[in-house]
Structure formats: structure tokens, C-alpha cells
Amino acid sequence: MSLTTLDIVTLAFFVTVWVSYTQFARIRARTTYSLSHVLRQLRIDWMTTLTRKEHQIADASLLGNLERTVTFFASSTVLVLAGVLTLLASADKVVDVLHSLPFTADTAPEKVQFKLAVLSLIFVFAFFKFTWAIRQFGFVSVLMGAAPQYRSTEFTDEQREIFARQSAKVLDQAGHEYNNGLRSYYFALAYLSWFLHPALFVIATILVVSVLYRREYRSRVLRALLATKGLEPGRINQQESERDAQ
């Protein structure tokens, strides 16, 4: 197998953009309102309300729905991964299909096998993210069961708040892992364009990042979620930023 210089550069560009955007989103969420930021606040509100409710049946049902959604993606990832690995044994047929498409760069079975192997690694990464999210949602279930009782006098308001914030952190981490798994799917879609042409691969990668950025920082749903707390998209004020850091 011999990758061209253009192939190597585009693959390096893809990996760099993926890693850079992940770090960018994590850092920017500390200073700018985003879906991650507002959902973190709503999760804190949820856990705070939980410690002041007599019954938690509805909360357990909501958490179960979240866990089932992540489980669906985890099981689907296994099926997709099985399909990709199956294609590795039929690289010749894949090459024939690619050659029948217009604007497809010259390729060879060995190169297709390499690309499929990398694609399988992307879905392996997604599977690990989804399964770790499932485990963390399970941890939240345990925390719900151990939450201070509504009529209990053994816990002060401060202790209830600490419990709620720490439980929300676990729930938030589960949400982040789920988001990382979904992000892997987005970038995998961009990666598929590499089978056609390296230039198309670069364009698709940029489009995926643009879509992710817009949904995280410029979407209508972000405005609606922020409006529930009387906020608007933009930079986080210093007072709230200090409170989030606690």
C-alpha cells in the first residue's frame, strides 16, 4: 500500500481538526454560552429539584429514556463496525464500485483496506464513548437511589446542594461522553468522502465542523434553552463563570 502525499496530508488534517475542535469546544464552553453550558445548568437544577421531591419515579423514567438512547447508538455502532470489517474482505468489489462513480480518484484494494481499517477505529472509539456514557448514567441511577429523602432531617440545605451539584457533574460527564460518541458519527460521515477524493474529504471535514459549531453556539434550540434562564447567546459574565467553577 502506498498513500500519496495528498492522502497523508488530508488524513492528518482530519485528525487535527477533530482533536482541535474537541479541545476548542471544551475551553470555549467556559467563557461562552453553549449547549454544553446551559445543559450543565439544567442538570444542576434537575438534581436540586430531585433532592426536594417526595417521589422520584418520573426522574427515574427520564434517566431510563436517556440511557436507552445511548444504548441504541452503542448497539448500532457494533452493527456498523461489523459491516465495515466485512467490507475489508471485499476490498476488490469496493474498488470496482468506486471506479464506477464519477470524480473518484484512482485507488487500489490495499488503499481501500487501509481506509476501512481507520474507519473501523473511528467506530471503535465511538463504541467506547457510548458504553462509558451508559455506565455513567448507571452511576446516576445509584445516586438517585441514595438521594436525600424529601422528609429527612439528617441533611442540611447545604448538604443537599452539594449532593445535587456532584450528582449533576456525573450526569454532565455522561452527557459529554454521549456527545463525543455522536461527534464521532459526524466525523465518520466526513471521512467517507475520502473514498472518493482527498479534496472532497477536506471540504466535508470543514462542513462538519461548521455544522457542529453552529448547533453548539448559534442554534435556535440554544436560544430557547438560554431563554428558560433569562439569558441570551454570548459571553458568560464573570460572576456566573466563577460560580460554575465551584
UniProtKB/TrEMBL annotation:
State the InterPro entries in the record. DUF599 (IPR006747)
Q: Enumerate the UniProt keywords alphabetically.
A: Membrane, Transmembrane, Transmembrane helix
Pfam families for this protein: DUF599
- Signal sequence bounds: none
TM spans, by residue?
A: 70-91, 112-134, 185-213
The yes or no answer to whether the keyword Nucleus is present is no
Name assigned to this protein: DUF599 domain-containing protein
Q: Which organism is it from?
A: Pseudidiomarina sediminum
